[in-house]
Amino acid sequence: MQTYRKLRQAFELFVFNRLKENSDDTLLEKLVSLLADSELFAKWQIDESEWLSLLSFLESSLRSTLSATHSSPHSSTLAVRDDIDVSASLRIMGALLRHEHVYGEQTDVVKSCLQIIANFLPRIATTECCDYSLQAAYLNCIHNLSHRKNCKRFLLAKHHQHSFPLLLFTLINSSQSHFVRNAAEKLLLSIVSEANEYKVNEIESLFNHVLTDLISNLPFLKSLLSSANVSNHLCYEYNLSDQLLQKFDDAMKADRIAYLYCRCLGCVISERKKAEIVFNKLLARNELKGLQHFCCELVKRNKDYVKHWLLYCIYPLFANCKLNAVLSTELNCSAEEKELVASLSCREVLKCSLSQMSNAYFPFLCEKQLDFVVKAIGLFLCENVDKKEMKKLVSEAISILSQSPHVASQTTGMHSMSQEFKRTQVEQRLEILSIVIRQAKQSQKCEILKAIRILIQHCGETLSECTVIKSICSLIHDILRQENIVSCIDECDSALEVLFNLSLLDKNLFVSTYPDLVESFWNVWTLCSSNPGYSSLTALCLPIVFDLDFVLSKAQLKNLQLSKHDDIIFILTNYLHSEDYNEQKAAIDTLTLKGNMPRLLYLCTNSTQRFFASIGQSLFNIASFNVDFELQLNVLKFLSLFVAEAIKSCREDDFENLVVNLYENGFFDALYHTLSSNCSTHNVKSEAFRLKMLVLNDLILRIGKLRFEEVIKNCSKPNVVVAQTVMSDLKCTKSKRNREEVLDEMFADNGVPFTHTLLEELLHCRHKDSDCNESVVENRSNWQYVEIVNLLSFLYDSSDISHESPVLCILDDILSSQAIRNETSIDCY
Length: 829
Fold this sequence. Notes:
The chain is mostly helical and 829 residues long. Helix 14 packs parallel to helix 18 (255-268) and helix 35 (567-576) packs across helix 36. The longest helix is centred in the N-terminal third of the chain and has 24 residues, at 48-71. InterPro entries: ARM-type_fold (IPR016024).
């Protein structure tokens, strides 16, 4: 009920424009986002009757505003103010209408909202004096209702001598707002494309408007033709292909619309005779780009024209290459056609060719044809990678090669590919890139390495210890062994990213494929780890170092001056304590990488005390406090998995030792501090509470509550320091302090060790009202005297940490911006 009352009050402030003049402009955004939350009503006890009451209030305010406008039609001041009020009401109504699960099949609610929307149609239709935000809010309301059953029929009818389709068409053509134009176009296409019967007057009227001035409306016509239903209807009922052909000479006069016109032709022409007419007309004008646009649409509807698409869109890429002889024989066309295309292949044509393949998704190609396309791009890159004037086109070609290959099945037409062909395709692309990079200039090597990394990342599961992997390892080896890394640090960084993805693919892959790479990598790691200026490289190296500790033998590690399993614990602990964000995050990412959990459990089991005293203690400290809440949350999520697995895999005779190590190294202290700290976010506290209950349940399940308490009683006091900070003690003033200064103070002299408390005190103390903050808040100005009060009862308490509802916090922010005015009571509405 409290949430409902505050929502109603917030609605009134916006609907009747009662906010202070200097109120934050984002308050309405916050309210709309809050209402759009799909779980709002479930979380904050807004029931169906309250929801309907809120909607009814909005309807009443809109009706009253509409009546006021009709009574003073010539008052521009009133109209402007009303636009602001109506816009707010419609935005809030649109957000409420998203919750279809609340009002379900209540058709009265839908009809009432639709009628309100229809009543505002004349006002929105006067685009020259209508506020853009009002237009956008109005369209959003229609959108949130348009998908409901029978609503489209209502939207297709005429209201107050206006119709929704023509209104939307008007907004598309005349609105000065790019957002409004896009929203109107999407909504109109949705209404038109899903209409079951096109013999509806308002739809036919819309089509007539579009076709009356065909050339001017080409952009919208192209959007209409994207729907197969609409395209077929226009071709059958209006003979659109003939209408377009009649406009050929006019459309081809201006490049701005010529190529859009060619695409529209490709969408509607199906007869071979008409297609030949278009081909001949465009060839007569030497319009190779026009042919490309025409073929691009035509081939999507008819695979018989794949030959034309390959000739006009793909052949230009290598038509003038020195090594094109072999590949050009695979193209099924005459020498004269090839010669003509080669003579017309300029930079703009090549740009258009590559743009046709920007999504690298060709449902009309078979495996052989896709192989031809990849080879063509490879020839283009080999010929042009070192040419300055072709730099942008080379970049686009590299990007195309980096995308996952797709083809259509010859039998079903579904997009499928055999694993063998996919592997061949990926290897072919990697081979092309590994050759091209050796010819490329320094500025483009990073781009090619990125493409290699993306291919390995998304398609690497098909690869094994093949020749191309050896070529890539050789390439990385050559980059990493350069004497002056400073001069090529970006290239080195990209090479390490490729190596990292290879290690994700198979921890042993690059070691077994190219052993020399281990030495060149280790030289880079040695340099980076001893130089604070290379933290980004260190972050990439750390996961690979962790892999090498398990992959290499003791003898191999000894050659690198490493002790197996011992030094890696020291290295990870060192970086977990690092003040450099990249290095600390790299250490955490290394621990949380998929596949590393069994290795960490092995380290933990092999040396439990040392593991928890180093890596464990470092993680607990990060979990208890970190300026980066996302990092803190990731550590807590990792601990939820790791500690649970450690408990599960721990031997019976070693279990109590695990409990002792968790306690003495600060695991429970970290949780206690996180949950009681004023600095922790709601998400962090929720994850900490979940971790607390998960671990406690697992521990008690294994040894029982009494034995657990006895083990804790015999533990030594936790020998750890946890950062303690209360935001209210920082005395931050806006005028003199900035964020960096506040953070400096948070870290300065705020680390105070917790003191150990007797078990009896722990067991007999209880929180009042289950508030875990109480004992801390009482002494917030004397942190050095704070004890771990009530640790075990805190652990056994299953209630969540009390926190103020974020919904109510947002609403309180809005209500605090209320203007103090003496106006007519809102009850009169």
